[in-house]
Specification:
By secondary structure, the chain is of the alpha+beta class. It has 2 domains: 32 residues; 125 residues, no CATH class. The protein has 4 helices and 9 strands, in the order H-E-H-E-E-E-E-H-E-E-E-H-E. The strands form 2 sheets. A 6-stranded antiparallel beta sheet has the order 2-5-9-8-7-6, with helices on one face. Strands 1-4-3 form a 3-stranded mixed beta sheet, with no helix packed on it.
Amino acid sequence: MLRSKGGATPMTKRLLAMLCVLATISACTSWLPEKVIKVDPAAINEVRSIGRVVARTTADPQYKRTTQVIEILVFDLNAPNFTEALSVARGRLEQHGWSVIGSADVPIEMESSRWKGTTVRLGQLGDIDPLGAALEPAAEKALQADPAKSGYILASLSSVGE
């Protein structure tokens, strides 16, 4: 059998190298999420239909190797104030079969009758910070340019992946 100068055979070196590569890959993939939960695109389109979307972004928090993608939409519903806009958004979603869950006035959380495990949360623009998302700079600038316009609604959609 041929031996290299280090005493190990070429085959042994290849096996050791392969074991090192496998160990490295195994260690690197242990932090990757095993599961990614996304909202059904049809549910997003249905929610988008309630008004004019002026900004869209996502947040993707991770928990125990699961990533839950949260779709975030900012609507301008041509309402004179936030309370009216919230009422309009709620009414339009109820027409599509969404129903209110929980009892808080703001934010309003609704669930879909068509997409099991899918919810939408309607709230104020300030609610975007706790979601870990940020609006694109152009959208942020446009929203800040008109602070008197308080009829914007933030809608965040999520799914539990049922």
